[in-house]
Write a structure and sequence with these properties.
single chain; alpha+beta; Structural Genomics Hypothetical 15.5 Kd Protein In mrcA-pckA Intergenic Region, Chain A; Pseudouridine synthase; ten-stranded mixed beta sheet; 21% helix
């Protein structure tokens, strides 16, 4: 496809105007999944600005149908709150939030489909009913899901203007300097590994994390609270690695081989997932307009990790 006249200079807007059979949200998903090339280069930013005579190519298999969503009563999660408009969920580590490449069953969405039946918002994708935001498979903690399109839209607006408060607790290698502060960078897909995100000096999306050191385990590890102003993919994991303090258990973003006392090294280095828990969520209820506030205790594996780190610190 060759662009002759670029009146809609955003990549997603242009493709939406050219391909009637696909919604703009579906096109945005295809772009973020690496299915679109501009001048032979994969572009994953839906807001990429096009130029006159750019050549755009979309993968031939972009219309591959996804399997139908099935209800699953075997998905593990806890419900902290539920009413006719929404659910607040405490997700354990190891549960994928919604179906996607390689994970079309046994996700949180499959579990919600069993629990709620048809009472979930339609969302922007038929495989993501109810999902307003997400956390990584191996991150535990709190999520809010929408049971109708009204609540979905109202919650999405709060996420868009960054009024929803989200706090995480994590364990990272080394010590942050300064011990509390703000990390603000641009983030984009890693050019060398599409599974990763990276701090970018050449565009991308703005990412802001506020952090506060809660506890220091000598010089080798720290317990840190992170509050998201934005919610980019892998944001905390990327920002902690950028500061030289990769999360314990996060092999994807571990920046280097960190020193760990010998007596606890096997346990710490063998921690099976990123030590990250979404413990706090606060938002305005879409119908009642009341402030809703939820907290979740750290799971047992992170409690065990804290005890081991404390023992290693003497």
């Amino acid at each position: 496809m060759v662009i002759v006249d670029v009146k809609k200079n955003r990549l997603d807007k242009f493709l939406a105007s050219e391909i009637d059979k696909l919604s703009r949200s579906r096109i945005q998903t295809l772009i973020s999944s690496g299915c679109v090339r501009v001048n032979s280069v994969v572009v994953t930013d839906a807001g990429h600005n096009l130029k006159y005579n750019d050549k755009i190519l979309m993968d031939d298999d972009f219309e591959v149908k996804k399997p139908d969503l099935t209800a699953d009563d075997g998905v593990e999660f806890s419900i902290l709150y539920e009413d006719e408009d929404l659910l607040v969920i405490d997700k354990p580590s190891g549960v994928v939030v919604h179906p996607g490449a390689g994970n079309f069953s046994h996700t949180l969405v499959n579990g919600l489909a069993h629990h709620c039946g048809e009472f979930l918002s339609s969302g922007s994708d038929r495989c993501r009913p109810g999902i307003v935001h997400r956390i990584d498979k191996n991150t535990s903690g709190i999520l809010v899901a929408a049971k109708n399109d009204f609540s979905h839209g109202e919650l999405a607006k709060q996420f868009a203007i960054h009024s929803i408060r989200r706090k995480y607790v994590c364990f990272c290698y080394s010590n942050l300097f300064p011990p509390h502060g703000k990390i603000e960078t641009f983030m984009a897909r890693d050019k060398n590994n599409r599974l990763k995100m990276a701090v970018s000096s050449h565009g991308g999306r703005n990412a802001i994390t506020f952090y506060r050191t809660l506890k220091i385990f000598s010089k080798f590890a720290s317990k840190v609270e992170c509050e998201l102003l934005t919610g980019r993919t892998h944001q905390i994991r990327v920002h902690m690695s950028h500061k030289g303090c990769s999360l314990v258990g996060d092999s994807l973003y571990r920046a280097k081989n960190y020193f760990i006392p010998e007596e606890i090294a096997d346990f710490v280095r063998g921690f099976s997932r990123q030590a990250l828990h979404a413990y706090f969520l606060e938002f305005i209820h879409p119908r009642s307009r009341k402030t809703m506030h939820f907290e979740s205790d750290m799971p047992s594996d992170m409690n065990a990790l804290e005890k081991v780190l404390s023992a290693g610190a003497g």
